[in-house]
Amino acid sequence: MPTVNHADVIGSLLRPRYLVEARQALEEGRLGRAEFKRIEDRAVDAAIAMQEAVGLDVVSDGELRRFSFFDHLLTHLDGLSPSEDTAGVTFHAPRPEDNWDFHSPLVVTDKLRTKRMMTLEEFAYARAVARKPVKALIPSPLFLYTAWSESHSKDAYKDAYELFADAARLLRAEVEELARLGCTYVQIDAPDLGTLVDEENRSLRESFGMPTERTLTEGMDIVNSVADVPGVTFGLHLCRGNYEGKWIATGGYDPVAEALFKRGTNIDVFLLEYDNERSGDFAPLAGVPDDKVVVLGLVSSKTTQVEPIDSLVRRVDEAARYVSKDRLAVSTQCGFSSVIIGANPIDEATQEAKLRLVAEVAGAVWG
Questions:
Q1: pTM confidence score
Q2: pLDDT, tens only, 28-49
Q3: 342 pLDDT above the threshold of 90
Q4: Following DSSP, what letter does each residue of 194-213 receive, concatenated?
Q5: Continuous H helices in the chain
Q6: Which CATH number fits the domain that encloses residue 188?
Q7: Is residue 358 assigned to a domain?
Q8: For residues 20-24, average pLDDT
Q9: 265 within a domain of the structure (yes/no)
Q10: Residues spanned by the domain of 70
Q11: On the chain, which terminus has fewer CB atoms closer than 10 Å, C or N?
């Protein structure tokens, strides 16, 4: 069984205003690249220091060097072209009139080739300044479903699953380089799997040639292939969508649990959203193998309310009916800013309070 980080972290953090302004100045030609990198380094230093100060067992660089969590797949690969000829994915808000449809700005038009392995800079810098273990973050290859087009992509790939397998090959090569740098913990962010709990998203994917059963078999095997790197602990984070506090999917893990836990043989840690009623109950955790860890995403990164610690401790106890408590951990349910322009509606003080709460819950439960 892998080492259990009882106070875990998902990844993205709110970008400080000075970093957002510096990025804009860089794009407009008012700031040089060298000075921008110094500002970026300053932001990462502060993010790591904050995570360590609140008591987390593992830290990330906050994805502060990225525009979005899926930069690997859209801006750091050749083989994609500008276009929004892709199916729209609906992000739901508490008020339906505030819903938002996401269309990928790029579409796959050619064979994928790596332009830059962005995690190498992220990890090497974070490792040098952090005192706690550093988690590296990569997107699931299946997230390229958002950039698949029946009319544009088939000249390069016979179907979407051939595309996913090619992306997995490139991502695995990046993880192999991370391992050579000493990285021992990699998280695969998989909203593509997490949103399959919802009929709306399943129907959307099936409408352009991605049957749910095939995604949960061949697709899950493709994700599992990324995690075939010795010496690295792999986490799989299932997200239901995260943009300005909005979400894509609602539903418990029952439709995907069997595929996750049986086919994810290379996955050591399952990081699962459990912050509200949209997540369902803990019963699907009964299928988690005895050598796997489950990180319960009990603390919401989408709301300003800081949850009472006693209620979270009780929820850990509830989950322990299905997975032994020594194999459980806690985190926020998702990151705080998966996309730089789509930060969740909280401020930096609340973000810090939420992460401190994660460490406090871990301390109360496991000492």
A1: 0.96
A2: 999 999 999 999 999 999 999 9
A3: no
A4: HGGGSHHHHHHHHHTT--HH
A5: 17-27, 33-54, 71-74, 118-129, 160-180, 191-194, 199-207, 212-214, 220-226, 254-263, 309-319, 348-366
A6: 3.20.20.210
A7: yes
A8: 95
A9: yes
A10: 55-366
A11: C
